[in-house]
Specification:
Elements: E1 6-13, E2 20-27, H1 42-47, E3 50-51, E4 59-61, E5 75-79, E6 85-89, E7 95-99, E8 104-108, E9 120-124, E10 127-132, E11 138-145, E12 151-156, E13 169-173, E14 177-182, E15 187-192, E16 197-202, E17 211-216, E18 221-227, E19 236-241, E20 252-253, E21 265-275, E22 278-286, E23 297-309, E24 319-320, E25 323-337, E26 343-345
Parallel strand pairs: 3-25, 13-17
Antiparallel strand pairs: 1-2, 1-26, 2-4, 5-6, 6-7, 7-8, 9-10, 10-11, 11-12, 13-14, 14-15, 15-16, 17-18, 18-19, 19-20, 21-22, 22-23, 23-25, 24-25
Pfam families: DUF1668 (PF07893)
InterPro entries: DUF1668_ORYSA (IPR012871), Gal_Oxase/kelch_b-propeller (IPR011043), Kelch-typ_b-propeller (IPR015915)
Length: 346
């Protein structure tokens, strides 16, 4: 897998009459240092952060005007894989595809319903699958057809087997199967994108990640964010898992790449797989309302790299395929945002 250069940050921008959404391309090349040191401790990780300015917007999206307050919402999805393009959907269910590399847009099929935040989306091959659990488990795919039209079509798919399905984590397995895990019902369910059929993978254990876990070819493991057992706050840390084995897999967790000061409260975390064992970890923090400047929102993006090492140098608590793994922290950068804005990391 080639190394992906840009992480896309979409921000809701407030305006007196109509909100809009701006997409900014964060160049991750400048985050990776020639040869950083492994993360030795949480204290050292907390010190290594720089304050930066966001790049200018590369694209602006305007939702249709509406007389109803709060009815100008949009949702954004990453069409990943070999594409790394952004799908935008407005409140009228219309969609558009933006290609950051070509700085071009193309029309896409409309969705049959307005997507409710947050929705679960994942790319399999050239196709984008969207599951909206708040709409009764509505499940649709934007399926690419490479015949005469060479275009995507919207396809209704069978809903998950459980009516109250809440997705906690998910991953693509074997290039065709989507595994979705729910902690409430304690199981893993598989959607076969070839046969368009559901099956049960496990009922006694769940994927230990929060959100999407992605396969890393270099290490033969799935990487995602999971709750740490090393601190009382159960912070989300980079973790790896082998989902190809027949036995219950062993989770390998790495140290925190960034520990915020006490004044910042974690709101959310996202992981972006850049390829070749490189990742971007994006974390969003808020200050308390009684902070001297009122409530503020900050984003911290950190570049990390996972490499093989000797077992005695293993930071992940165990070897992988006969060798250990360790995480190298590169550069962290902090940005100040508007406190109430919505955001997407794609």
């Amino acid at each position: 897998m080639s190394v992906r250069r840009f992480v896309h940050l979409v921000l809701e921008e407030f305006a007196p009459r109509r909100s809009n959404y701006t997409l900014r391309n964060i160049d991750m090349d400048r985050f990776f240092l020639p040869r950083p040191s492994p993360v030795p401790s949480a204290a050292a990780a907390a010190d290594a952060v720089e304050y930066g300015s966001l790049p200018c917007p590369a694209m602006t999206f305007y939702p249709p005007s509406s007389s109803l307050s709060g009815n100008q919402n949009m949702e954004f999805f990453l069409l990943g894989g070999n594409h790394n393009m952004v799908v935008a959907a407005d409140q009228s269910c219309r969609t558009v595809l933006y290609d950051p590399g070509e700085h071009a847009v193309r029309t896409m099929p409309a969705l049959p319903y307005q997507v409710t935040l947050p929705a679960t989306s994942v790319t399999v091959g050239d196709d984008l699958y969207i599951l909206d659990v708040d709409d009764g488990g509505s499940f649709h795919g934007l399926i690419y057809e490479d015949g005469l039209n060479e275009d995507w079509r919207c396809c209704a798919l069978p809903p998950p087997p459980l009516s109250d399905f809440e997705v906690d984590s998910y991953a693509v397995i074997g290039g065709t199967d989507i595994w979705l895990s729910t902690h409430d019902n304690g199981g893993i369910y598989c959607f076969d994108t070839v046969r368009h059929a559901w099956s049960t993978v496990a009922t006694r254990w769940t994927l230990p990640f929060v959100g999407l876990a992605e396969y890393c070819h270099e290490h033969g493991l799935w990487f995602g964010l999971s709750h740490s057992t090393r601190d009382r706050r159960r912070s989300l840390v980079l973790s790896a898992l082998d989902l190809d084995g027949g036995e219950l897999p062993l989770l390998r967790s790495f140290p925190m790449e960034f520990t915020p000061p006490d004044a910042l409260n974690l709101v959310s975390s996202d992981l972006v797989n850049l390829g070749s064992g490189k990742f971007c970890i994006a974390r969003f923090f808020r200050t308390d309302e009684d902070h001297r400047d009122g409530e503020e929102l900050f984003a911290v993006l950190t570049a990390v790299e996972v490499e093989r090492c000797d077992d005695d140098e293993d930071d992940a608590g165990g070897g992988a395929n006969g060798g250990g793994l360790r995480m190298l922290k590169h550069r962290s950068e902090m940005y100040k945002l508007t406190s109430e804005m919505m955001y997407w990391v794609l």
